[in-house]
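In this supplementary section we document a worked example of the pipeline. Step one takes a protein sequence of length 145 as its only input; no multiple sequence alignment statistics are reported here. Step two produces a three-dimensional model, which step three serialises into structure tokens for compact storage. The input and output of this example are shown verbatim.
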Amino acid sequence: MSRASVIAGAVCLALGAAACGGGSGAATSSASSPPATATARPSSTAALTIVTPKIGASVTGSPLDVKVNLEGATVVTTTSTDLQPDEGHLHVILDDQIVSMTAETQTTIPDVAPGHHILKVEFVANDHGPFFPNISAVTSFEVTA
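The serialised model returned by step three reads:
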């Protein structure tokens, strides 16, 4: 047997043991149960929609005006660990980058480059963590020069 065959066999055994758990006692999660942190998050009956920009809109120039509608909850300016299901603030995310944390349902994003963009707005609890399940709205739009 060649040295390469022995090394390849050893690597396969090691990978196989790791894939089976190897008896390390480490906790694993399954697809049928939520992660442990999910049950610790508060839930909310709030509903969030993006009013502007509308899906597929063509927006001329920058800055970008964003308006959302939040029902069943109130945006507040305070940060707290005393979490309430009907209080929080908004995280505004443009192209997977957070651009604003606000207690307003209208905001302006400066310097949005021409091109296709995805905007996500998330209603989060007073500690900046998400509600469970997540309360968010998404739209896509095009900025033209």
